[in-house]
Amino acid sequence: MRVASSAVAAVRRSKWAAMAASTWIQCASGGSYCFGVYSPTLKSSQGYDQSTLDSVAFFKDVGANIGVLSGLLISSRAAHGRTWVVHLAGSAQCFVGYLLMWLSVTGCIPRPPPPLMCLYMLLAAHAQTFFNTANVVSAVENFPDSRGTVIGIMKVIAPPLLWRSLIL
Fold first, then answer.
1. Average pLDDT, the chain
2. What is the pLDDT of residue 45?
3. Torsion over CA of 127, 106, 167 and 150, rounded to 10 degrees?
4. Per-residue confidence at 70, pLDDT binned at 50, 70, 90?
5. If we measure between CA atoms, which residue out of 31, 45, 49, 159 comes closest to residue 97?
6. In terms of domain of life, where is this protein from (predicted)?
7. Predicted pLDDT of residue 3
8. pLDDT band (50, 70, 90) for residue 42
9. 3-class DSSP state for residue 40?
10. pTM for the whole thing?
11. CA pair distance 128, 34, nearest whole angstrom
12. Are 151 and 137 in contact (CB under 8 A)?
């Protein structure tokens, strides 16, 4: 029994388990990739014209591509070797940003002015940089001789898996 539990613990801590978990996190955290799926609902429920929706989309792109805070966090002494801290920060941002957008779309809270909706979108999309940073750093540390391959797996394979699941 003790051997079996130590084998399970070793698998949980293996670099392959971390790679599989990172790939699934990449698949699940791609909400900003799906903006085209939910933007018509956002546009109609908030009474936006195309120009306003384009502004929200712009802040989605800004949030998804400015990963300075996630880089600073993973480089900090507090998170060194603890990618879960970076994942937790990203999860909190993702939850708050998309929750506020959802509450706005469903009418649970008053319709926010467009700049506030842009902030919600920026916050939700910015969470993606935390997931990307933690996953890529973890993969590079676990597979130093195959850095390009593991980064490619996460950045090229994971988003199409998300899109395929939405289409099917």
1. 82
2. 93
3. 10
4. confident
5. 31
6. Eukaryota
7. 55
8. very high
9. helix
10. 0.79
11. 13
12. no
